[in-house]
Structures are given as C-alpha cells and as structure tokens.
C-alpha cells in the first residue's frame, strides 16, 4: 500500500471506513490508520465523520503518466525516450543523473509527487508539498559540449514564462533561474530552474534540467519558504498538474535541439522583454561581498549587464545572487 493508493481511494468524494479501506488495499485497519497519520504529517487534511469514515478535505490530482503521454503531440512523443512517475524520490534531478551514470538518461523525464532532498540554485532547499506542485526533471545529451550551453537556463525560463502567459499569468524573469509573476507591485516567485551539467567542455555532456513549478501551496509551506511566493491555482483554481507536465515536456523537447543548433541568441530578446529588474536598483551578493547597481539586460551569452559607478559591468552565473532594492 502506498500513499498514492490511499489518496486515490479517499479522493473519490465519498467516505470510507478504516475497515473498508483495509479490505480494498489488502492490509489491516492498523496499517490503514498508520497511513492516515502519515497524510496528516504531510499536511494533507482529512475529514472524519463518526459512522461514515474518512475522505480528503480537498481533492488532490495525482500524477498520471498515461494521461500526460496522451496529451503530447506526436512530434514530442517521438523525442521522448521514457517518462518516470514516482511517488517519492530524493530529487528528480538526482534520479536522472543516476540514469545517465547507468548509460541512459537522454530525453527521459522524471516527475514525482514529492522529493525528500530537493535543491535549488546554490544548494538551497526546494520545498514542495506532497502532490500539489510540479516537480519535473528532463535529461538531455548535448554533443557540442558544455561550452555551448551558456544561457540555457535563461532560455528555459523563457519557455516556462511563455507557457504561463498563454494562460493569462503575467510572468517575469529574474536572472538567472527564477520565474516570477507580476501581481500589482509585487513579484512573487512561481517557479525555479536548476540546470546541472556533467561532461566535457568541448565534447559530449549530459544535462539535467530541473523545474519546480508551484501549482498549489498550502499556507504552512508559504510560511516556511521565507520569500514572497505564489502558485498557479491562486489565479486558476482548476489548473491541472498533469496538463502542465505535458506542456512543459512539449516546450522543452522542442527547445533543446534548437538551442544546441543556435545557442542563446534566439531567446535573448524574449528574456529581456520579461526582465523583472530592468532599470531597477539591485543588490548583488557575491559571497560576503554586497554591491549596489542598476540592472539592465542580458547579453548574447546570457550574462547580466548592470550599471555600477557609471560603468557597465557583466555578471556571469555561479555564486552570484541578485536582490531588488525595496
């Protein structure tokens, strides 16, 4: 019995007694009770009515590999090698890095209901609630080498932003890896991107692209994150995780061959049009060093240009963080 099995039963809108759940799942009532306690620990609220049993207080849309594949255009299905849908992994990026070590990984996608050790940029923890965000990774082998991948995370940010914009969500991009929404004067974060590269500078290299997209965020998770965040269902209550998974796969599997052929130049203008900090005062954090500047745009290699002490300075990726001045 897995948590997915239990949620599938409890999510049909009806009440289920512990005895009925045990019979359906082939386990004891005690085992069912232990799993119900796990749901509470995962911040999945239940309704319990004496004499009737249990049901989910709010429906949870489980990831469904078959429906995701069926939603893909034919050309995307041709490019996709394999789709993994997991209940829990350490991280979807780690899962695909291991696949590359095993000699697979290219054009494979891993989705998970939750990850126990998800990471963002600079090793930060990426927290997601069970079954309510999209935790997505895609593996791709580039033959042209790591040196040709400048600006890749920014190009990915563009296609994520364009996907959100097609649903009327006003997406903005924060250099180098964040997708924000423009909500009046606030710009809360809705998605993050983590690109990990292994291989040669000039030869074949393996790339794992991780994307965390907030579909739904309970209040308890927002409090723990420590920055302004938002979620798709804040604006589109019926948004489907499975639909967004399929659309991400379609967008990325179209982007990657084109990026290998053209580099970042095809996405530079589109990124700059969505630059969240264009012309704004920003703080640049490099280790313990803190500098103030005015943000401009990104160059053809995806480096950020800022004005500092009357001069234009170019910032590459790595251990650099950007903050807007309030």
From TrEMBL:
It holds the Pfam family HTH_11. The keyword Nucleotide-binding applies. Biotin binds at residues 91-93, 115, 119-121, 185. Its EC number is 6.3.4.15. Keywords: ATP-binding, Biotin, DNA-binding, Ligase, Nucleotide-binding, Repressor, Transcription, Transcription regulation. GO terms for biological process: regulation of DNA-templated transcription. CDD domains: BPL, HTH_ARSR. One of its GO terms (cellular component) is cytoplasm. GO terms for molecular function: ATP binding; biotin--[biotin carboxyl-carrier protein] ligase activity; DNA binding. Residues 75-260 form the BPL/LPL catalytic domain. Signal peptide: none annotated. It catalyses: biotin + L-lysyl-[protein] + ATP = N(6)-biotinyl-L-lysyl-[protein] + AMP + diphosphate + H(+). Residues 18-37 bind DNA. InterPro entries: aa-tRNA-synth_II/BPL/LPL (IPR045864), ArsR-like_HTH (IPR011991), Bifunct_BirA (IPR030855), Biotin_CoA_COase_ligase (IPR004408), BPL_LPL_catalytic (IPR004143), HTH_11 (IPR013196), Transcriptional_repressor_C (IPR008988), WH-like_DNA-bd_sf (IPR036388). Acts both as a biotin--[acetyl-CoA-carboxylase] ligase and a biotin-operon repressor. In the presence of ATP, BirA activates biotin to form the BirA-biotinyl-5'-adenylate (BirA-bio-5'-AMP or holoBirA) complex. HoloBirA can either transfer the biotinyl moiety to the biotin carboxyl carrier protein (BCCP) subunit of acetyl-CoA carboxylase, or bind to the biotin operator site and inhibit transcription of the operon. Belongs to the biotin--protein ligase family. PANTHER family: BIOTIN PROTEIN LIGASE, BIOTIN--PROTEIN LIGASE. This is Bifunctional ligase/repressor BirA. It comes from Cobetia crustatorum.
């Amino acid at each position: 019995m897995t948590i997915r099995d239990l949620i599938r039963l409890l999510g049909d809108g009806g009440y289920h007694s512990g005895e009925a759940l045990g019979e359906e799942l082939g386990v004891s009532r005690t085992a069912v009770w232990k799993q119900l306690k796990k749901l509470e620990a995962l911040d999945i609220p239940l309704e319990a009515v004496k004499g009737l049993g249990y049901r989910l207080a709010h429906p949870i849309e489980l990831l469904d590999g078959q429906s995701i594949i069926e939603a893909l255009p034919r050309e995307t299905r041709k490019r996709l090698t394999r789709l993994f849908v997991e209940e829990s992994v350490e991280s979807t990026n780690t899962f695909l890095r291991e696949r590359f070590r095993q000699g697979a990984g290219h054009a494979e996608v891993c989705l998970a209901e939750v990850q126990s050790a998800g990471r963002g940029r600079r090793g930060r923890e990426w927290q997601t609630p069970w079954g309510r965000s999209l935790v997505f990774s895609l593996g791709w082998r580039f033959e042209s080498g790591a040196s040709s991948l400048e600006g890749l995370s920014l190009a990915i940010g563009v296609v994520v932003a364009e996907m959100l914009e097609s649903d009327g969500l006003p997406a903005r991009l924060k250099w180098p890896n964040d997708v924000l929404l423009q909500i009046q004067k606030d710009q809360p974060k809705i998605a993050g991107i983590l690109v990990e590269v292994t291989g040669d500078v000039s030869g074949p290299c393996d790339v794992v692209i991780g994307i965390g997209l907030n579909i739904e965020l309970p209040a308890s998770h927002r409090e723990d994150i420590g920055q302004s965040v938002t979620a798709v269902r804040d604006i589109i209550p019926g948004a489907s995780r499975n639909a967004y998974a399929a659309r991400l796969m379609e967008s990325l599997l179209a982007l990657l061959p084109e990026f290998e052929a053209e580099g970042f130049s095809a996405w530079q203008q589109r990124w700059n049009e969505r630059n969240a900090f264009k012309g704004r005062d920003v703080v640049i954090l490099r280790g313990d060093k803190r500098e103030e500047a005015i943000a401009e745009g990104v160059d053809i290699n995806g480096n950020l240009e800022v004005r500092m002490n009357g001069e234009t300075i170019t910032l590459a990726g790595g251990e650099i963080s950007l903050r807007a001045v309030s």
